[in-house]
Amino acid sequence: MTCRLLSRRATCSVLCMVVLLCQRYTPTLAQTISAHHDASPQEVATFAFDRHLGLIFLPVTTLGVTRQFIFDTGSSHHVLDNRFTTRLGRPIRTDRAATAGAPIAVNFFKAPKMLVGDLAVVSNGQPVVAIDFTRMSEVIGREVYGLLGASFLRERIVSLDFDHGIVRVFASVDTTPDSWGTPIPLHVDSYGRPHIPMVAIGTDKRSFLLDTGLNASVTLASSEFQRLMKKGMIDSLRSTYAMTAGGEERRLSGRLKTIRIGPFEHRSVIVHESSENKIGLQYLSRFRATLDIPRKRLYLAPGLSFGKTNTVNTSGLYLAWRGNRVVANSISKNSPAQRAGIIKGDLLLEINGIPATGTNFHRLRSSLRGKEGTEIRVTLLRLRRQHVVRLHLQRR
User: Fold this and answer.
1) How far apart are CA 210 and CA 298, in angstroms?
2) In what helix (H) or strand (E) does residue 267 lie, and over which residues does it extend?
3) Residue 351: which domain range?
4) Is 248 exposed, middle or buried (0-12, 13-18, 19+ CB in 10 A)?
5) CA-based angle 10:13:16, to the nearest 5?
6) CATH of the domain at 343
7) Is residue 7 part of a domain?
8) CA-CA distance, 184 to 88, in Å (whole number)?
9) Which end of the chain has less Cβ packing within 10 Å, N or C?
């Protein structure tokens, strides 16, 4: 998720590639890459995360409590839920911030002491932001207490193992093991956010923000999306629903014909129209990824999902988690869900026999995806009466 401070051109994100490796490198880059060997860097912390949630949650201790925060490299600030404001004191200032959706007003506070596990989060005088995460929690399907922003990466190396659901944190090292994979140069902005300067889409090369708080594969700024659409580089257009820090929004989505990061190329990757070019967690999870911000490198090694084909919800039914219940939060026009008679506010009991209550929310949403013609059986409750409806997925 990205939320950019308008007055400073910075960023904060839920919801986010590459310098094409040339045949010839400058001597400095070549020397750096040739220095790789299998020396083991010093591991300072390890965290497990649920690979099926669609986002990475890490334990953050602050203001006397430990809560799960989203690890968000697209966020220029650490962000706390409004529930913390009574213990944060008076705001330093209020400002406007740009999000992937509409701009919002946010309060800035003096940064409290924060720990990720036993690792101190150094603020360097940077304030924290407080916003209301209620709607985002509903869409994600679990409580969101905050965002751990990009500055956590300062002077640290973070490895993301999506195959096993493990985050490893290393001290800065002089050399890196070959097992980390192919080095990709990064640009790091003044807030510590990583950008891949030249992602190749066809013959075009653009800079992309690497945003682990974005539960999507790729987003393109509206002007880029429209331009590539006219060039025929984006197929299968349709309108989809998204939740941002600025609220709900409808956006165009399609499939990129090709996208390449260094030597890695993928076809038919789902892309969404947004406010900024970003590589999100769904794309990054195709790899074992290591972020070395001190040396401005991203290391990529193909993971178990490297060749996985993206799927998308074509049912037109979008869910929300409210008070341990799952409800129909939004219904797309002319969609299978609308034709089946589902309306906003319906209480979901089962999807294809999977109980809505007590089931991993990400798994429940994934059950709404499938091939064209797939039948999905939905059991719902409306006005105290139980109904069973059948959706037939359309082509995406």
Assistant:
1) 10
2) strand 264-274
3) 317-392
4) middle
5) 95
6) 2.30.42.10
7) no
8) 39
9) C
Q: Are residues 146 and 177 in the same domain?
A: no
Can you read off the two tokens belonging to residue 327? 């409800």
Residues 170 and 297 placed together within one structural domain of the fold? yes
Q: How many structural domains comprise the chain? A: 3
Q: CB neighbours of 134 closer than 8 A, spacing ≥ 6? A: none
| 182 and 59 in a common domain | no
